[in-house]
Amino acid sequence: MKDYKAWCFDLDGTVYRGESPIAEAVELIGWLRKEGNRVFFVTNNSALTPSRQADKLERMGIVASPEEIMTSSLATAGFLLEQHGRMDVEMIGEEGLREALEGAGHRIVTEGGEAVVVGIDRQIGYERLASACLSVSAGARFIATNGDRAFPTERGFVPGNGAFAGLIESTTGVRPTVIGKPEVHMLAEISSRHDLRKEEMILVGDNYETDIRAGLRFGIDTLHVDTGVTRTADLAGFNEQPTYQLSTLADWPF
């Protein structure tokens, strides 16, 4: 097992489940900090701002600055700005997505947007979903912050953003452009911002379809931990394997 300068951790299912920290992850991250390693958090969850995400981690005993947290909301806002400039955006999502879009100069509208951006929204109602479907059918660009159909909580698996995006796709026949993992936008942004070479980075995650695939696509080493979505026994069914497979992060030699 080689040394890495930058560890990129998924959050849901890897560092915590809902509001419950995974003790082995907290311990490993603390040790990495003491050893002088750089630690980043790469999450498909679009709901929280980086500041509020840092506060949540602090409550779990993990020190993190907002600059070390890359969310799918930030990546989505940056992608739209780079590809299309400032836009009128019809948004399904929470505080994290709104702050990211407005911070990038996009204008939030309630209907008739140039783009429909879908993030997790735990207060969603029928009319907002219907409006999003109508806008996509009328030609608005359809963007999903991520494609996770479910994510783990302390209660079990609950609907993720991909479930909402899938409803709109099913209604309109239009597939969304997905920004979060397994796409590489967030990892590329971390590498660029912090002048990191790929051989210095490792991605740690529980979900093969999102976390591990993102690392494989970006060309960095990956560590799968059996604490969330994909069970270790199921990894044999995939053609490409993660660099490391662990039952828990306590098994990493530190």
Descriptive report:
Belongs to the HAD-like hydrolase superfamily. NagD family. The protein is of the alpha/beta class. It folds into 2 domains: 6-44 and 181-251, 3-Layer(aba) Sandwich (Rossmann fold), CATH 3.40.50; 84-178, 3-Layer(aba) Sandwich (Rossmann fold), CATH 3.40.50. The protein has helices at residues 23-34, 50-59, 72-84, 95-103, 126-137, 161-172, 185-193, 208-218, and strands at residues 6-9, 16-17, 20-21, 38-43, 69-71, 88-92, 107-109, 115-118, 141-144, 150-153, 156-159, 177-178, 201-205, 221-225, 244-246. The longest helix is centred in the first third of the chain and has 13 residues, at 72-84. The chain starts with 5 loop residues before the first strand and ends in an 8-residue tail after the last strand. 48% of the residues are buried. The mean pLDDT is 95.
Strands, helices and their partners?
Blueprint: E1 6-9, E2 16-17, E3 20-21, H1 23-34, E4 38-43, H2 50-59, E5 69-71, H3 72-84, E6 88-92, H4 95-103, E7 107-109, E8 115-118, H5 126-137, E9 141-144, E10 150-153, E11 156-159, H6 161-172, E12 177-178, H7 185-193, E13 201-205, H8 208-218, E14 221-225, E15 244-246
Parallel strand pairs: 1-4, 1-13, 4-5, 6-7, 6-8, 8-9, 9-12, 13-14, 14-15
Antiparallel strand pairs: 2-3, 10-11
Helix pairs in contact: 3-4, 5-6
